[in-house]
Automatic annotation (TrEMBL):
It comes from Polynucleobacter asymbioticus (strain DSM 18221 / CIP 109841 / QLW-P1DMWA-1) (Polynucleobacter necessarius subsp. asymbioticus). One of its GO terms (molecular function) is protein-arginine rhamnosyltransferase activity. This is Protein-arginine rhamnosyltransferase. Keywords: Glycosyltransferase, Transferase. The keyword Acetylation does not apply. Belongs to the glycosyltransferase 104 family. It catalyses: dTDP-beta-L-rhamnose + L-arginyl-[protein] = N(omega)-(alpha-L-rhamnosyl)-L-arginyl-[protein] + dTDP + H(+). Pfam families: EarP. InterPro entries: EarP. Protein-arginine rhamnosyltransferase that catalyzes the transfer of a single rhamnose to elongation factor P (EF-P) on 'Lys-32', a modification required for EF-P-dependent rescue of polyproline stalled ribosomes.
Length: 356
């Protein structure tokens, strides 16, 4: 089938990351014909860089305007249109769908949530005045929702020297072999200065890998540079592709992630992590976080539950860091659980079956 995916980038990386991962899964795993129309091609292309050219060349990446401004060569009507995260389709593109002899199916791909109400709305019709069939599709963890994007499943195990991605080889050669590794990709509101100072006071050797631009974003080296003892060292990562970032998560002992795509990748890395969920004014993010933790910690001991909840709500590392070993075992078991629950192929496979 022919698929058109529309992606308007709100959160710089997360929206584009989900759309790209969905496109590559549909194309490489399910043999679908996929186009992406995106309003920020530089970001999308950066995330897609480093991918096997045989995978990338199968996906037609186009600017947003190309969906409706190419008058001489109008866009062919697809079988499926995906509105990622409820973005509105361009009016002229929608008009072309009205007059098409065979109408496509429109999928409103919603945000990921572990909240119980999601299963009540997943797959439900969303009647439109124009008559083109449209349905809600909710990604999620339960069996009766849309599933998770799995492709590619990240590596697990010790570092193999010749597997270090080219863009990270220079950085990796400077890391200390006797130090723990923590990657950080968070929003500006995180209390990172205080968090790092508290971590340093624990006395362990830790190498901190800051996502591209984070040192400047969080003003760690600005007018009042952060002062840390020698046991804690900060390293700024270059901008890396989606696959390279997945690899980084798999090679760290602990990860701080944000958004939707990196949230799932941290779980698939099988390592303890903090999900810095995007803060919302109505505090809806707190409900979403609590719903996830109810699932994530359902089989955990009371001590681990308290430690994990403390970490996820930005308690200082001194309150929970000594639980890292048992948390690591739990994270590996959770990864195995996720892969078993998504054994039907996850979101891309469920979406293809839903359309059929």
């Amino acid at each position: 089938m022919r698929w058109d995916i529309f992606c308007q980038i709100v959160d710089n990386y997360g929206d584009a990351g989900v759309c790209w991962r969905l496109a590559r899964s549909l194309s490489s795993l399910h043999g679908q014909e996929v186009r992406i129309f995106c309003d920020d091609l530089p970001t999308l292309n950066l995330l897609a860089s480093g991918v096997d050219p045989r995978i990338k060349e199968k996906i037609d990446i186009q600017p947003w305007e190309a969906s409706h401004e190419n008058v001489r060569h109008p866009v062919k009507v697809p079988d499926v249109v995906v509105e990622a995260f409820g973005c509105e389709l361009p009016e002229r593109y929608l008009t072309n769908l009205f007059i098409a002899p065979i109408k496509p199916i429109i999928i409103n791909l919603e945000y990921l949530s572990a909240e119980p109400w999601v299963s009540e709305f997943h797959g439900k019709a969303s009647p439109q005045s124009h008559g083109i069939p449209k349905y809600f599709f909710f990604p999620g963890f339960q069996d009766d929702v849309g599933g998770l994007l799995l492709d590619p499943i990240p590596p697990i195990g010790s570092l193999v020297e010749n597997q270090i991605p080219k863009d990270l080889q220079a950085l990796w050669s400077t890391l200390r072999p006797n130090a723990k590794r923590i990657s950080i990709f968070c929003y500006p509101g995180a209390p990172l200065r205080k968090w790092l100072s508290d971590l340093a006071a624990l006395g362990e050797n830790v190498d901190i890998l800051l996502a591209h631009g984070h040192a400047e974003q969080l003003n760690l080296y600005g007018e009042q540079p952060i002062e840390l003892p020698n046991n804690l060292k900060l390293f700024s990562m270059p901008f890396v592709s989606q696959d390279e970032y997945d690899w980084v998560l798999s090679q760290c002992d602990f990860n701080i992630v944000r958004g939707e795509d990196s949230f799932i990748r941290a779980q698939l890395a099988g390592k303890p992590f903090i999900w810095h969920i995007y803060p919302q004014e109505d505090r809806a993010h707190e409900v979403k976080l609590a719903a996830f933790l109810d699932l994530y910690l359902s089989d955990a001991s009371q001590d681990l539950k308290l430690a994990t909840i403390a970490a996820m709500t930005w308690a200082m590392p001194s309150d929970w860091f000594n639980s890292l070993q048992i948390w690591n075992k739990h994270a590996q078991a959770w990864r195995t659980h996720l892969l078993e629950k998504q054994g039907d192929g996850g979101l891309a496979a469920r979406l293809v079956r839903f359309i059929a």
